[in-house]
Write a structure and sequence with these properties.
By secondary structure, the protein is an alpha+beta fold. Helices cover about 35% and strands about 30% of the residues.
C-alpha cells in the first residue's frame, strides 16, 4: 500500500535561498530512488519561508530505506540550523 507524507518546514527569513538550494538537491536525488512515486517541493503562497514536501512512496519499506540515504542525512544536517522551528511530518495511507 502506498505511503503518503507531507513534511512542513518553516525557514528563517534570511536563509530562504540557501534552503531552496538544499531542497533542490534533495528533491532531484530522491526522485531517482526506488519506490519514490512523487517528491515535490511546494512553497506556501501566503506564508513566506513555509515549504511543504509532498511525498508518495510505493511502500513503507521504500520510505524506510529513504530515511537513511546519504542525501537525506546531509539535507537534515544542513537544514537544521536554518529552521525557524522543528519540522512537522505527517504520514498516512489513502482512504479514498
Amino acid at each position: 500500500m502506498n505511503l503518503h507524507i507531507v513534511a512542513l518546514f518553516r525557514i528563517k527569513e534570511n536563509h530562504l535561498m540557501e534552503a531552496v538550494e538544499l531542497f533542490q538537491k534533495l528533491v532531484f536525488a530522491t526522485r531517482k530512488e526506488s519506490g519514490c512515486l512523487q517528491y515535490d517541493l511546494i512553497e506556501d503562497s501566503v506564508n513566506k519561508g513555509t515549504f511543504f514536501l509532498i511525498e508518495l512512496w510505493e511502500s513503507k519499506e521504500h520510505h524506510h530505506i529513504h530515511d537513511s540515504v546519504e542525501h537525506l542525512v546531509d539535507f537534515r544536517k544542513n537544514i537544521s540550523s536554518i529552521l525557524e522551528e522543528s519540522t512537522q511530518v505527517y504520514k498516512g495511507l489513502k482512504i479514498y
